[in-house]
Structures are given as structure tokens and as C-alpha cells.
Fold this sequence. Notes:
Blueprint lengths: L1 H9 L5 E3 L7 H11 L7 E3 L6 H11 L9 E3 L7 H11 L7 E3 L7 H13 L6 E3 L11 H10 L4
Parallel strand pairs: 1-2, 2-3, 3-4, 4-5
Helix pairs in contact: 1-2, 2-3, 3-4, 4-5, 5-6
Amino acid sequence: xxxxxxQAIIQRQCTELRLKQNKxxxxxxxxxxxxxxxxxxxxxxxxxxxxxSDIGSRSLAQAFSVKHSTLIRxxxxxxxxxxxxxxxxxDMLKINRTLRHLLLSANKIGDRGCSxxxxxxxxxxxxxxxxxLDSNRAVTDxxxxxxxxxxxxxxxx
Length: 157
């Protein structure tokens, strides 16, 4: 992971990085996050199907909690992310206005995490265009009113 971070990210040559279906854990996410703090070229990061978890989510969300980020698409589906990780991304979206697509499908996010994301997109962020929460089996009818309010308020979604 250090080699990927050094060659593709820190040297600022890469605009799209696809690391789907690997065995990247929260430790790898931390290495990526550290490298991404110095990157001004990366526009798309695909980490679907890894083992990032909430700990790795925190590292990545902190790395993108800046106004000058160039990232427009972040794919973190199937990474064992729970409501805690969703909260980190909700907090990130309060600051980050460049991210357009946040893909969190097939995780373990429930109604609490959906509520946090929806509230952020209602009150703080109107630039996100796509929020993917497919196949998060802990999402219930309780989240529907939050989604409706989010769609009514946020014209970009």
C-alpha cells in the first residue's frame, strides 16, 4: 500500500485509482488518507469490496474534510461501514463541496447513519449529486421521511 500511495498519489500523477475487491483494511485506508492529503489530481477513488470499516472511514473522511479537495467520486461500498462511519462522512460533507458522488452501498449503515447523512444534505451540503445507500440492510421505514426531506430540500440529488 505504501508503494501505491507513493507512486500514484503523492507524486500526483493519478486522477483515478481503482482498488476494488482487495483486502485493504483500516491500516491501508490510513496510508491512503495520509497520501491523499497532499494530492491535487485524484478525482475518483474506488475502494469497493475491501475491509475499510469505521476506523478507515474516519481516516478517509478526515483526509477529504477540506475545501480544496479535487475528489468528485468516492466509492466505499461493501466495507463493513456502520452508522459511526456514516457520521464521519456526514461531518466531511459539511466542509467538502467538491465531492459529487458518495457510494456507500452494501455496508451496515442503519437509520441513525441515514439520518445523519440526510440532515447534512438538508442543512449543510447542496453540492452532492449522488448518495448510494443500496443494500444497507439496517435501513428501515424510519429513514424514509429523512430521504423525502432531503430530496425536497436538496435540488442536486
